[in-house]
Amino acid sequence: MYCLLIYDITDDPARGKVADACMDYGLDRIQYSAFYGQLSRNHQEELMLKIGKLLRKKSGRVQLIPVAQNEWERKLEVIVDAG
């Protein structure tokens, strides 16, 4: 199942650990605070538990949203390379 994981975490070290965990699970970074990839439901739950432990008492919000592949393929985006 494809999923989008987005987060808003104020603590720099905690934010870095969450990003590392996402990459450890094979997710691809699509924005600074957004990852996308394919995870089984078990891996989704496992990752969210791990993120919860990484955040401990730090402020933050993490959302993991299942996305159907055909819907993801219909996305619209603007990419500008000014350099």
Textual characterization of the structure:
The chain has helices at 12-24, 41-55, 69-72; strands at 2-9, 28-31, 34-38, 60-67. Helix 1 (12-24) runs antiparallel to helix 2. The chain contains three helices and four strands; from the N terminus they run βαββαβα. It is α+β, with helices and mostly antiparallel strands and 83 residues long. The longest helix is centred in the middle third of the chain and has 15 residues, at 41-55. The N and C termini lie far apart (36 Å). 39% of the residues lie in helices and 30% in strands. It has one domain (2-72): Alpha-Beta Plaits (2-Layer Sandwich), CATH 3.30.70.240. The radius of gyration is 13 Å and the shape is globular.
Q: How helical, in percent, are the residues?
A: 25-40%
What is the overall number of helices?
Answer: 3
Unreliable stretches: none
- CATH class membership: Alpha Beta
**Most strands sheet:** 4 strands, antiparallel
Q: What are the main properties of this structure?
A:
4 strands; 3 helices; 30% strand; single chain; Alpha-Beta Plaits; 39% helix; 4-stranded antiparallel β-sheet; alpha+beta; globular; 83 residues
Topology:
Layout: E1 2-9, H1 12-24, E2 28-31, E3 34-38, H2 41-55, E4 60-67, H3 69-72
Antiparallel strand pairs: 1-3, 1-4, 2-3
Helix pairs in contact: 1-2
Briefly say what this structure is:
This protein is of the alpha+beta class.
